[in-house]
From TrEMBL:
GO MF assignments: exonuclease activity; nucleic acid binding
Organism: Dioszegia hungarica
UniProt entry tagged with the keyword Nuclease: yes
Entry protein name: Exonuclease
Segments for region (Disordered): 80-134
Family: Belongs to the REXO1/REXO3 family.
Primary location class: nucleus
UniProt keyword annotations, A-Z: Exonuclease, Hydrolase, Nuclease, Nucleus
InterPro entries per UniProt: REX1-like_exo, REXO1/3/4-like, Ribonucl_H, RNaseH-like_sf, RNaseH_sf
Regions of compositional bias (Polar residues) in chain numbering: 112-124
Coiled coil spans: none
Single biological process term from Gene Ontology: negative regulation of gene expression
Length: 534
């Protein structure tokens, strides 16, 4: 190695503190502050000797590399961020050159604009870390990318003048960091430039064509996935549950006239019913509910098989006790008539969607029918049996378009908060009864609307609604044992979609909006899966 000439050792280092491991400027306070010399980036004369390496004790991290593009593009900056191109900084004879303002890199791979940032015009190497590629090659590659990004963003350049600069910088940094040698680096730059040149010109900053190659590819795939799984009537009608299969899956018969006539027996006060929890016969009463607390001892969990000491045992999920053990929870007796549609109709009569829509039109209600909706309801126990407490409807995008609590006309026996998520404070603010909620729901559900749900027959019964266009995800992806067995919605979501729902169900109850959205996502998965195999 040739010995360094040390021509810059009399010049004061412009950076305080200096983090360059091989700095060729002076670092003593006694040295006169001379204007910083400029060194062309990545270009050395053949006769110029290379700097001699020296050891340094400071092993702290070195600032990322900065390279200035002579055509006006912002300088390269590493993982710290990509600053926006700005006006040159003012330089005084004693202060030297001001350090460029640092910008934060956002998750999309392009740093946000930083108005008012002042960037040095110096072409010196600056705070550079060791690079696998020569600086001259990187400068040329950066100019190539900048040219392509500038052409691509011509239509939106007024929205963000520095967008092409930031994208080209971020792109080059990604390629430089991932390339193993110079030839691989040049190939990657070429492919990136070609990829950018083939993109559709964006008309907005949110367009999928905006961003680095990786970001644009991810955005494009997301848009294509959404388009492929969009739920429309034509795309979903093949999954409709046939009316002939309604009895198999215990759906209320939409053409049964006996279900239309109702309201003859609004509650079950004085009748003898079988407790839905402990199985004991009792007389329905709304008196002395606090004093009666504890008359019903039961397990709220399910019986699940488990092996202990090599032996299969059936244990309650709530307390891990064996089958037949005394209940672990106390309450009042409740009853459920969900299997008897005629009895349910005597409490509150059923109504066809088309009939409810006609009533809405006669009363001047606004219609906003959707092609496909997801629906989920939460129920509580009253002296009228299993009663609707909340109805939630979400649209095809998963946005909640209807969510209403139901004012109860019968005495509440148990809010079933552990599963319903309903509290007394919630119901205190309810203003609409079940009939009003049903009428309001049919502003979004029309005769041709497809309702999607999981175990949807329970929701239709709770709302006393008759409809023949339903998709049940429990039927769509059936249990391996067939009807009437069903897989839990949370298991389908975990298996097909890869995430978890109902994580807080044991304490705060289910989220009806979350469950309704999950059923739509399962259906979207089914649509994509079938399309991929056709």
């Amino acid at each position: 190695m040739f010995k360094s000439l040390g021509l810059l050792q009399t010049s004061r280092c412009p950076d305080e503190p200096c983090l360059r491991p091989y700095c060729f400027f002076a670092h003593t306070q006694a040295t006169a502050a001379a204007g910083p010399s400029r060194l062309p980036v990545g270009v050395t004369g053949k006769g110029e000797p290379a700097l001699k390496k020296r050891k340094v004790d400071d092993k702290s991290s070195v600032k990322p590399l900065e390279v200035e593009i002579k055509s006006g593009v912002s300088r390269l900056k590493g993982a710290e961020g990509v600053p926006k191109a700005a006006t040159p900084a003012r330089v005084s004879g004693t202060e030297g050159i001001k350090s460029p303002a640092k910008a934060r890199v956002t998750g999309d791979g392009v740093a946000p604009s930083t108005s008012g940032a002042r960037v040095s015009t110096s072409t010196r190497p600056g705070d550079m870390k060791m690079s696998k590629q020569p600086y001259a090659d990187r400068q040329k590659a950066l100019q190539t990318l900048f040219t392509q990004y500038t052409k691509l963003y011509t239509g939106i350049s007024t929205l963000d003048p520095d967008l092409a600069s930031r994208c080209s910088i971020a792109e080059e940094l990604d390629i430089s960091a991932s390339s193993t040698d110079l030839s691989a680096y040049k190939r990657a730059i070429h492919h990136a430039a070609v990829s950018v040149s083939r993109r559709a010109p964006p008309d907005a900053l949110a367009h999928p064509s905006v961003g680095t190659v990786r970001v644009s590819r991810e955005a494009t795939l997301k848009v294509e996935k959404e388009a492929a799984s969009r739920l429309t009537f034509e795309r979903c009608k093949r999954y409709l549950l046939p009316v002939s299969a309604f009895p198999t899956w215990r759906y209320p018969e939409p053409n049964d006239p006996a279900l239309i006539q109702g309201d003859t027996e609004p509650d079950g006060l004085g009748s003898t019913q079988k407790c839905d929890r402990c199985g004991v016969d009792f007389v329905v009463s709304s008196a002395n509910l606090k004093e009666r607390m504890g008359e019903c001892v039961y397990h709220f969990g399910r019986l699940l098989p488990e092996k202990r000491d090599g032996k299969k045992m059936w244990l309650y999920s709530c307390c891990q006790k064996e089958r037949g053990a005394v209940g672990c929870y106390k309450g009042v007796h409740i009853f459920n008539e969900r299997e008897d549609d005629v009895k349910l109709a005597s409490r509150v009569g059923f109504k066809l969607v088309k009939d409810q829509v006609e009533e809405n039109r006669a009363s001047g209600r606004v219609e906003a029918f959707a092609e496909v909706v997801g629906m989920d309801c939460e129920m509580i126990y009253t002296t009228a049996g299993y009663s609707l407490a909340r109805a939630t409807i979400v649209d095809e995008k998963g946005e909640t378009i209807f969510d209403e609590l139901v004012r109860q006309t019968a005495t509440i026996l148990d809010l079933n908060t552990r599963f319903s998520g309903i509290t007394q404070d919630n119901l205190d603010g309810a203003v609409m009864d079940i009939k009003a909620v049903r009428a309001a729901a049919c502003m979004f559900i029309g005769p041709e609307t497809i309702i999607v749900g999981h175990g949807l027959e329970n929701d239709l019964r709770a709302m006393r609604l008759l409809h023949d266009k339903v998709i049940d995800t429990a039927v769509l992806i059936p249990h391996h044992k067939g009807a009437p067995f069903r897989r839990a919605l949370r298991d389908l979501v975990k298996e097909k979609l890869g995430y978890f729902i109902q994580q807080q169900a044991t304490s705060t109850g289910h989220s009806s909006a979350e469950d309704a959205k999950a059923t739509l996502e399962v259906l979207k998965w089914k649509v994509r899966d079938d399309a991929a195999h056709e």
